[in-house]
Amino acid sequence: MKINRIEQVLKQGRKIVHLSSGLSGRESHFPAGILKKGFQKFLGNPLYQPDSKGSLEARKSICTWYRKRGFQIHPEQILLTSGTSESYFEIFKLLAKAGDEILFPNPSYPLFETIADMAEIKVSFYRLDEKRGWQIDLEDLESKINPKTRVIALVSPNNPTGSILSAATLKKVLEIAKKHRLAIISDEVFSEFVFGKKSFPRIATFGNSLTFTLNGLSKTYGLPGLKLSWIIVSGIGWEQQVEKLEHLTDTFLACNQIGQCMLPDIIRCGESFIAQYRRQLEKNCDLTTRNLLELKNVSFHKPEGGPFLFVKINGLAMNDEEFVIKLMKATGIFVHPGYFYDYDKELFILLSFAGEEKFLKKNIEKICKFIKACQVRR
Ligand SMILES: Cc1ncc(COP(=O)(O)O)c(C=O)c1O
User: What is the pTM of this model?
Assistant: First the structure.
């Protein structure tokens, strides 16, 4: 990924507003009282009793969390990790050897390729279809499978497109996975931020293919600093896979014990935080899309969930990198260019609407004004 020209501008010392990060903003709004309660529990019993899967109490709480959401699991199916990035790395190591392939969606969050590189695994991309609200192009997906392919990774709600994979799409993915005997990774880190739908379609509830469902505290509770995530292993052969994964997680011993002590209280008392955050995000999404819709030659699929908007700008005589640099120089706002997501066929930018409403409104207005000025100049 070429980020040098953008990095140069970022390093020039000017104050830059980042309008691209997800829910892991600099400050957490999660109620401190709930965190304190969990921390007190740790202080009450700070013994080091590492369990390579994570503490049973924490895993039981995760089961309760999923039960409320219609997904029945057992604590034995869960392993705690120090972040979803680490979850990916461990699953890659579990399922693939050097030179094997993992299928990822395109556009795609850039971190995956870096982690796959570290695990010496090749990433092959399948297409998300912009014209169909960024659902999976299933024909393309199947055409990318070869004897080295081990896993199909899904990201729903998606970063960067904001799309949610429908139940119908997920069932078809399951058929493909079964036919080619592939495992599934379902990255659901934004699953709590779904707009206008009663339930979120979860692939692990539709079939019995071997599935690794990923989530954690980072996005769901806006607590990336606690570095606590989980892997749920379900479907055929989950027991053996958990056993093997446990050997991998054991290499680093158990993850952060303070976070593990806090997790049950966060889960028990955090539902109203999630609900409030979801309402705020939905409101922010409306505000952002309303402003952009007033512009000519700007199009997007309105996010169904998550904190991101992936916007296409037509008719400008510049590419995504030039646009981002000019925007930064003119307004001091940094958004991501499409090429960060391996998507630079046309001019796409990614912006996050996760910030405070007032801050967001001010910056979106500046971006709209900048786009209009570029269009007039053209
Ligand atoms: C889709 C997606 N998956 C995983 C991650 C990594 O999450 P964590 O903070 O738990 O490592 C991110 C981070 O932004 C993400 O956007």
Answer: 0.95
